[in-house]
Amino acid sequence: MPNVSVRIDGLMIATVLGVGAAAFLYLNRKELINKVNPASRENFIYQSVAGEDGTIRELDYVFAGLDLINPFNESDAYAEQLYGLD
What we know:
5 helices, mainly alpha, about 90 residues, elongated
């Protein structure tokens, strides 16, 4: 039997990770397509706005806070309402 030597290098690791990522995307393609499909109710933006995910609400607080500390903005009305400062 011949003596076989295999060295693991960066290219081999990148190839294995690439093949694994491609397999993951292929096996989960229907769910992933529905997450970005604008006509789907499983779209992550629709779910966020519908209240099934708290992402939009948390981002509202972040941007409202930035709005309050920004001296160049025109109105802080929404930010003050969100934080209960009105």
